[in-house]
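Agenda item 2: adenosine-5'-triphosphate complex prediction
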Amino acid sequence: MDVIVSLCKRRGFVFQSSEIYGGTGSCWDYGPLGVELRNNIKRVWWRDFVHQRDDMVGLDASILMHANVWKASGHVDHFTDPMVDCRECKHRFRADQIDEMDWTHYCPATKGNKFTMKAGGPCPHCGARRTLCPSCGKGELTAPRQFNLMFKTFMGPVEEDASVTYLRPETAQGIFVNFDNVLQATRRKLPFGVAQIGKAFRNEITPGNFIFRSREFEQMEIEFFVNPHDRLEDRPADEVWHDRWIADCQAWFTRYGLAAEHVKLHEHGRDELAHYSKRTVDLLYKFPMGWSELMGIANRTDFDLKQHAKFSGKSLTWFDEERKEHVVPFVIEPSAGVDRALLAFLLDAYQEEEVRGDKRVVLRFHPELAPIKIAVLPLLKKRSEIVAAGHDLRHRLTRRWLTLYDDTAAIGRLYRRQDEVGTPYCVTVDVKTVGDPEKGETGDGKVTIRERDTMQQIRVPIAELEHVFGRLLDAGTPWSEVAAGYPRAEG
Ligand code: ATP
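Presented output:
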């Protein structure tokens, strides 16, 4: 993780929020490359799950909502984590996560030597298990008390109870309260889903692990409404749709780069299930700190719509023309965090390898996610025709694919820089491209394309670049197939 954190800062993916004031450990800012990567993740998710499906529409609800939304949803009463404090060092912990942390131990069997013990395990010398603060190893812990994770704020100029509201802790409720609006506006029939991407805020007791757990983050959520009386494949329709969404979400993450062996499903046991859930399955990713939740896919039943109907007094049902009855749909909710997805894609893309005795760092991003798609690099900066041709190419290509021009170092170093940020293709303009009028040589109008992963190079006429990149970046044609049509260039 440290390697990724440092790369993210150095190359402008992620910065600590308010760093010049000492930073906040709980919020993060996305730099020039981070914002592109983030936007690409959101764009591809929206395209695949909203635009390319017949049964989905989108929504963008406000962050501040009526305070009763959070009473109806159960967040005011139940959105809490158990918190304990160390009486000695004042460190705060989530009581339910404390046994998953490595712990500090002053071992009586070794004259009080200090050790760091593995989470959950006993001391191999004295056999003791952790009872004190895992951080300082000395302080007693307080009894757990429930802490509400919602950020409270006031609507309007007067800070009084009547104007209390909350920054939304999830985007889902914005979809539930708009259920009828969307239904009326779109005349949809069940099953259909509503997707939303937006910020959410949680006053986490222990934010950490870089962007994995922060206090301000972004979610990509879907509420997929199903008629609970329908049957599919001889089973209740909500159960079948739940399985389909689990499979679709898992396939989406592996399609865009996560290795299949780094992703697994976790079925919530009875004791883990939220009060509204019939079944919840988490998609876990093998993060450096261990298998942790990347996203959750829950069957929330009709809980939310019924709660909002009860608290608002408005009917939130769908009329089933065939059965001539009003039904409250069941809801399947795939809920993913943009920041966790971004971290997982970064971690899985990162590779170090040796090339001709040198270390090469490469981010093997899926081309759709790569922040920069093409880098145009001039081989000789002092030749003005080469530089001009490079700028011209950048302008042309960037209309369709984000393209960068860089002439601030020698070509080898420029390639390494692009490898390190995951740019799939570099285009090099050289003397042969533009020719040399002094020697009476005309240019061949061709440039070299270098592919990031294989480092192979091919020579392509400038006039064909749009066609070639259209195949590579839009149609997803494999490099080997495209490269086979052009002569290889020297590496
Ligand atoms: P956790 O158990 O890790 O706290 P959760 O089960 O509370 O997560 P959900 O309420 O299911 O999370 O939220 C859906 C998704 O939103 C999560 O799978 C995660 O990707 C993202 N998410 C939730 N909390 C945070 C956070 N504090 N920082 C970043 N992403 C988050």
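Discussion summary: The first helix runs from residue 2 to 10.
Owner for follow-up: CH.
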